């Protein structure tokens, strides 16, 4: 969705100034809202988010958009020689993501601890897998610091931390050959998917919920598209046959999801599940193809023109520009909502009221941050501070 059709004023080989992609901000804003709705698990509005109509969900979109935004924010500067400055900025960004995650683990635990204090129901800790903190706090704290222990709903920032942490290496390789960067990323993705390789997790085996060795490929794809857009003015050129093939795949995914449901493991005996079953942990091939098809179809539809035509002060665009604080706000509000639903607050009226209030809170945070940014005079053209690859 972040990809733009070729600009009439752009010719092949023209190096365009990075600038802001308003459509990208809008789609990131929508992805943030969708993630928030899905995180208030069990609410009535969760049934209408797009995860119910295909193989992918908002997390896939957001990782791809993060790569696209990373190229817009850093690649041009890195390519012209500002390698140390860019690398230090990226490292600072990664540290911020890491510390933010740890703070959210503590805050999320405190929200459910308050529910336990009020109700006396220690079973609440199991809702987002907080039992290790109660049963073996020493081991759980060490594992949380090393990112092996990731409570429920708190497993996406560790992925982003790894993705941003690897960005200096991606910038180094891509500055020499963008194609090589994509090929190496694809090789790692394929190897992880076929062998089941993942980073270790605590307390249960099985690895990270979002396997960084797999999800990095979607981030790199987004990065490559963002770099291409910066250079040529278009991330994904339109091809009629490709567009119709992508649309057909989306329709197939819709029919499967709403009809018989996802195929079981091993439904094609001669092929590994990584190639045949839509699966989230390893970002299986059917799931990867779905998010790419969705982005391609929307990027070359009237929806992209609508998104690009919205003003920069539109709430969705502001949310997309300030993605990290908006995401963290939504995460805290959603965890609180899950705790409330477990302690007697439930039903369609509560669901709609709470989700509406949560989205409004995220928009308010984005608006306040945009106002602060405006009072500070904004950022240098083409390098907006609000471009957050997270």
From TrEMBL:
Tagged with keyword Secreted: no
Database matches in InterPro entries: UCP028704_OpgC
Keyword Flavoprotein: no
Transmembrane portions of the chain: 58-76, 97-117, 153-173, 180-201, 213-230, 242-262, 282-303, 324-340, 352-371
The entry's keywords: Membrane, Transmembrane, Transmembrane helix
A Pfam family the protein falls into: OpgC_C
Stated name of the protein: OpgC protein
Source organism of the structure: Teichococcus aestuarii
């Amino acid at each position: 969705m972040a990809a733009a059709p070729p600009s009439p004023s752009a010719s092949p080989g023209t190096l365009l100034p990075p600038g802001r992609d308003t459509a990208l901000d809008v789609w990131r804003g929508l992805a943030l809202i969708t993630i928030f709705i899905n995180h208030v698990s069990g609410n009535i509005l969760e049934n209408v988010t797009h995860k119910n109509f295909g193989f992918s969900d908002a997390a896939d979109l957001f990782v791809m958009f993060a790569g696209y935004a990373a190229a817009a924010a850093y690649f041009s500067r890195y390519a012209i020689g500002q390698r140390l400055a860019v690398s230090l900025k990226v490292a600072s960004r990664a540290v911020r993501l890491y510390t933010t995650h740890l703070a959210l683990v503590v805050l999320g635990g405190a929200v459910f601890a308050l529910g336990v204090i009020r109700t006396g129901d220690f079973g609440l800790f199991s809702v987002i897998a907080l039992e290790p903190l109660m049963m073996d706090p020493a081991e759980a704290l060490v594992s949380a610091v090393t990112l092996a222990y990731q409570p429920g709903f708190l497993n996406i920032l560790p992925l982003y931390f790894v993705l941003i942490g690897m960005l200096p290496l991606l910038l180094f390789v891509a500055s020499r050959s963008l194609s090589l960067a994509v090929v190496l990323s694809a090789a790692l993705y394929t190897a992880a998917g076929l062998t089941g390789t993942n980073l270790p997790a605590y307390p249960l085996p099985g690895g990270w919920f979002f396997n960084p060795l797999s999800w990095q490929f979607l981030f790199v794809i987004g990065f490559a598209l963002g770099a291409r857009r910066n250079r040529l003015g278009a991330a994904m050129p339109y091809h009629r046959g490709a567009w119709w093939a992508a649309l057909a795949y989306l329709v197939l995914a819709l029919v499967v999801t709403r009809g018989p449901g996802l195929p079981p493991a091993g439904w094609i005996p001669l092929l590994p599940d990584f190639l045949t079953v839509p699966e989230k942990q390893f970002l299986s091939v059917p799931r990867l193809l779905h998010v790419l098809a969705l982005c391609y179809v929307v990027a070359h539809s009237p929806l992209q023109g609508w998104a690009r035509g919205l003003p920069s002060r539109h709430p969705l665009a502001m949310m997309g520009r300030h993605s990290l604080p908006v995401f963290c706000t939504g995460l805290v509000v959603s965890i609180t909502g899950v705790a409330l639903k477990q302690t007697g607050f439930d039903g369609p009226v509560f669901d709609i009221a709470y989700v509406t209030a949560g989205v409004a809170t995220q928009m308010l945070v984005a608006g306040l941050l945009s106002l602060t940014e405006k009072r500070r005079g904004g950022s240098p053209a083409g390098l907006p501070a609000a471009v957050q690859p997270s």
